[in-house]
């Protein structure tokens, strides 16, 4: 098995999904208390040779992760209400994904742009205008995380998020995978999606500043058109930072994203750690079974 593969995943409703080399595993705790494990092979985007090419791989991984994350989240919702036997129509999966993307674009890109455009009448510098837009975007992101963190159901998801990070940290540290060892690890991880989003928002400030201050319609189009490039750059930055996390300069650059994860993770209980550990073990077994001799 490829020892340099970076395992990771996401929290779902009463569960954790771990993405392996060729398969994804999700473990969800049913209302009865029983753990339910589910596997599915990764799509062509994740296993394509293009997924190894810098910059291109960022787009492919992002697209595959969004689709996989949506499917596993909906699966966990179905398990939570004890309807495992029902099938979810593809339209619901892709409709949910499209709706989430549109909401994110409006909240984090269109809204800051409109506000910055309104301030342009009072700002003479295009650089300052772009800095203001970026600052508003980051502020909205932080306030959004703060707001959803007040919801009890989301707080439980954040606890599973913390359990996933603790388990991955323990695995990457090479210790025996048991609850006693996993408990002591931090709930933050440098490859977290929260870190990725923060890097994307920061990189967007610099990329958009290079464009100056064209007409509003062109600025809006540029925000959408350049988002894949910025996401690819963000993905490469996160990978590099995670691989060089012991470097003092890199650790300094990682500090804001690790601190921000205090808003998207919570200290899990042993039951949540058990779910995360089971998901990682299921992903490892799936990879071992599908790895050629």
Instruction: Tell me the overall shape.
Output: globular
Strands, count: 4
Write the H/E string, N to C: EEEEHHHHHHHHHHH
**Kindly state the mean pLDDT as a whole number?**
87
The helical percent reads 55-70%
**Lateral arrangement of strands in the main beta sheet:** 1-2-3-4
Count of distinct structural domains: 1
- Which radius of gyration do the C-alpha atoms yield? 20 Å
Task: State the separation between the terminal residues, measured CA to CA.
Answer: 9 Å
Strand content: 5-15%
Assign the structural class, choosing from mainly alpha, mainly beta, alpha/beta, alpha+beta, or little secondary structure. alpha+beta
How many helices does DSSP assign?
11
Major sheet characteristics: 4 strands, antiparallel
Given as residue ranges, the uncertain stretches (5+ residues, pLDDT < 50) are: none
Walkthrough of the structure:
It is built from eleven helices and four strands. With 293 residues, it is α+β, with helices and mostly antiparallel strands. The chain has one domain (8-290). Strand 2 (15-19) and strand 3 (23-29) form a beta hairpin. The N and C termini lie close together (9 Å).
């Amino acid at each position: 098995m490829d020892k340099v593969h970076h395992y990771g995943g996401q929290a779902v409703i009463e569960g954790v999904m771990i993405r392996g080399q060729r398969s994804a595993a999700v473990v969800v705790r049913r209302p009865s208390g029983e753990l339910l494990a589910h596997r599915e092979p990764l799509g062509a985007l994740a296993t394509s040779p293009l997924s190894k090419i810098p910059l291109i791989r960022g787009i492919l991984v992002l697209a595959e992760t969004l689709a996989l994350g949506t499917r596993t989240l909906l699966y966990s919702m179905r398990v939570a209400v004890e309807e495992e036997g029902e099938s979810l129509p593809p339209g619901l999966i892709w409709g949910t994904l499209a709706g989430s993307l549109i909401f994110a674009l409006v909240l984090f890109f269109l809204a800051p742009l409109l506000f910055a455009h309104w301030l342009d009448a009072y700002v003479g510098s295009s650089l300052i205008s772009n800095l203001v837009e970026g600052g508003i975007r980051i502020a909205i992101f932080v306030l959004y995380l703060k707001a959803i963190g007040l919801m009890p159901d989301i707080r439980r998801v954040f606890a599973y998020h913390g359990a996933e990070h603790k388990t991955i940290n323990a695995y990457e540290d090479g210790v025996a995978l048991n609850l006693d060892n996993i408990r002591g690890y931090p709930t933050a991880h440098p490859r977290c999606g929260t870190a990725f989003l923060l890097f994307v928002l920061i990189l967007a400030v610099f990329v958009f500043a290079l464009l100056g201050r064209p007409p509003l319609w062109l600025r809006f189009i540029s925000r959408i058109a350049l988002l894949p490039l910025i996401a690819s750059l963000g993905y490469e930055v996160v990978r590099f930072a995670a691989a060089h996390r012991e470097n003092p300069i890199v650790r300094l650059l990682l500090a804001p994203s690790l601190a921000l994860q205090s808003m998207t993770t919570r200290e899990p209980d042993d039951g949540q750690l058990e779910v995360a550990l089971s998901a990682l073990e299921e992903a490892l077994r799936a990879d071992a079974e599908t790895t050629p001799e």
